[in-house]
Design brief:
single chain, about 140 residues, alpha+beta, 3-stranded antiparallel beta sheet, two-stranded antiparallel ribbon
Length: about 140
């Protein structure tokens, strides 16, 4: 934490953005991990698309089939397509942080309740066979087992 990412005309300091979170006693590392996956996987999908990605992460955290914390779910090998890319869009990063905070404070209604998987509409992974489609949101299809 405390890293700054270049973007636009200025840098965004993550710790500065997370200060109100510390006041709410949210796990800061979990917040950052969740914001990262939302940003990298769905920043072009709008708020609904980002919240849907968060739904998948949170459903996995609650499932006995996956690790029981956000960062371990996100960093599980082969599960999410991003890998330590560089944050370049200040506004999108700030939005992802804000949405992640809303998710962790349970101040939203799940967009894809129970979804544990998703993929882009332009790929057809073998693992999706037999899963139940919950919803398609822009460029992603969301499933539950």
């Amino acid at each position: 934490m405390g890293r700054s990412w270049a973007g636009g005309s200025r840098a965004v300091d993550t710790l500065q953005l997370l200060q109100p979170t510390i006041k709410h006693k949210l796990p800061v590392l979990s917040l950052q991990c969740l914001a990262e996956v939302m940003y990298f996987e769905a920043r072009s999908e709008g708020k609904i698309g980002q919240l849907a990605v968060a739904d998948v992460v949170m459903a996995r955290v609650l499932s006995s089939k996956y690790p029981n914390n956000i960062c371990d779910v996100i960093h599980e090998k082969g599960q999410f397509t991003y890998n330590k890319q560089v944050i370049t869009e200040d506004k999108a990063w700030v939005l992802a942080l804000r949405l992640a905070k809303i998710v962790l404070l349970h101040r939203y209604v799940a967009v894809v309740p129970g979804a544990t998987h998703y993929h882009a509409i332009y790929v057809h992974p073998k693992w999706s066979t037999g899963l139940t489609v919950i919803k398609t949101i822009k460029k992603h299809i969301f499933y539950k087992i």
